[in-house]
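Entry:
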Amino acid sequence: MRLLISNDDGVNALGIRALANIMAEAGHDVSVVCPDRERSATGHGLTLRTPIRAEVVESVFHPNIKAWACDGTPSDCVKLALWALLDSPPELVLSGINHGANLGTEILYSGTVSAAMEGLIEGIPSVAFSLTSYSSQDFTGAAKFARMLVEQLAQKPLPDSMLLNVNIPAVESSQIKGVKFTRQGVRRYVDVFDKRVDPRGKTYYWLTGEVLEDVEPPVSFDLPENIPIDVCVIRDNYISITPLHYNLTDPKGFKDLPFGEFKLE
């Protein structure tokens, strides 16, 4: 398959090297276009007021991989690849492997998920991969599962307008209990702004924060019953696969909004 791979951790991240190299070793035609530095939590931001530059990257990835490092956001990278850098469109866009989880409402901020979403917006099936640890340096198991999933998608492609958000527990392969299809949970944080003063006497703030709680959202009326949430299955050492799309319309709104007809004068 022709694969486009990006991330939000930057060109030197271990996760993207593990993902890209294992796909090239499996015989896929791999192109990498990713940020030249870490661009985590950039969401779906695009660069509009400054030029975007992309430099060819050598001696970082498998020798069969074509690679560029871009000074834009993850979404910039995918958009630039599709419209300017690649000779032909990919059959699948992959993003990751992210260093850290993208679960629950974290996906709204995630550059990893947004890079994959950009592929989906352009009509290309996409998958975002995350390893649920910021400290682990071993992406081997996550990369092997990514290869297995891509092999399945080569035989049975994703439906139109679907993105898979895949989170893999950072444990030994023998400890993975299996794979579960999940729905997005709600992850609430307590945000803390650390107030500091710079050497010139000016105040600045540094955002920190910790997970306060994971909340199970109400089941949407158009979802099957008993679908577990992503944040829960990860704690039980299951791989979580959540199908996503970019249409944010809430179908319940047409039924539940407490309004009648509006008469405009």
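The longest strand covers residues 203-215.
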